[in-house]
Design a protein that fits this description.
With 294 residues, this protein is an alpha/beta fold. Among the domains are: 107 residues, Glutaredoxin; 94 residues, Serine Threonine Protein Phosphatase 5, Tetratricopeptide repeat. 53% of the residues lie in helices and 9% in strands. α7 packs across α8, α8 packs across α12 and α12 runs antiparallel to α13. The chain is elongated, with a radius of gyration of 22 Å. The relative contact order is 0.07.
């Protein structure tokens, strides 16, 4: 177990996690549940014999680090692998749950991986947790793969894990200007963090003036916050039909971001076949093309 400050965070957490998983425990001296969880984490670290490193961060003393990880309550634990957060949990959970959490991610040691050919084609579908774990592992194993990062962050946001998504996105933030899908993630994150709007007031403003694009865009943002994707795109289309270039094509860029967000991953198909496109996505792609090209 190591105590971490801003001074040794880069070396003892980020760099260390590139060779050994690091479980970061955000705690505070006044926190009762932290006093329960702390000894359990230390016991588990000893039981696992070096399979992971336990790092403890006093969130009161290291507010910059707590802020970077979006910590809103303690205790909160974040697991880093390959220099990036991959999963986490909040609260003083029992020892068995801690081990179950770790076992999802940590290498098995000497256990041999089963060959891919031994996996039955009719195996049960992955649970949401297993699917997220697979995306996390892909993101960690391929830190420069923008598609892998996008899929993992998108999954975190669909599961309402905003803090974790922000932490994973942060190292890739500078790419958002050049990589469309990362720009889509940035727009979604910014929208989720913006204050909620009075939807009734916005609709009244739009009713009074159909060209009140600020209100239309604010309403689209509110729909995005609520996960009402088609409602958001409908409002953005109303802007595009009246002014394609409004605010440097803000509406078009938001529309494209939503398509990125809601487009499901293509299913596996036989070689040579083209995977089917989601009908909702296909319909709104056509509507966007029709408006933009008109």
């Amino acid at each position: 177990m190591i105590d971490v400050t801003i001074a040794n965070f880069e070396a003892d957490v980020i760099e260390a996690s590139k060779t050994t998983p690091v479980l970061v425990d955000f705690w505070a001296p006044w926190c009762g549940p932290c006093k329960t969880l702390g000894p359990l984490l230390e016991k588990v670290e000893a039981d696992y014999g070096g399979r992971f490193i336990l790092a403890k961060i006093d969130s009161d003393q290291e507010q910059q680090l707590a802020g970077a990880f979006g910590i809103r309550s303690i205790p909160t634990c974040v697991l880093l692998m390959g220099g990036q957060p991959v999963d986490g949990f909040t609260g003083a959970i029992p020892e068995g749950q801690i081990k179950a959490f770790l076992d999802k991610h940590l290498p098995e040691g000497d256990a041999e991986d089963e060959p891919a050919d031994d996996i039955a084609e009719d195996a049960e579908p992955q649970s949401e947790t297993d699917a997220l774990s697979a995306l996390a592992q892909a993101a960690v194993a391929n830190p420069n793969d923008d598609e892998a990062q996008f899929k993992y962050i998108r999954a975190l946001l669909h599961m309402n894990n905003l803090a974790q998504a922000k932490a994973v996105f942060e190292p890739h933030k500078t790419k958002a200007l050049a990589v469309q899908k990362l720009a889509s993630i940035e727009l979604w994150l910014n929208t989720l963090e913006s204050p909620p709007a009075d939807e009734t007031a916005l609709r009244q403003a739009i009713e009074a003036n159909k060209r009140d694009f600020d209100s239309r865009y604010a309403l689209a943002q509110q729909c995005i916050r609520d996960g009402r994707w088609t409602d958001a795109m409908d409002e953005l289309l109303e802007i595009l039909m009246r002014d394609k270039s409004w605010q440097n094509e803000t509406a078009r860029r938001a529309f494209v971001a939503i398509l990125d967000i809601i487009t499901p991953d293509a299913p596996k198909v036989a070689e040579g076949q083209i995977p089917p496109e989601d009908p909702v996505v296909a319909r709104y792609r056509r509507r966007l093309s029709s408006v933009v090209l008109s």
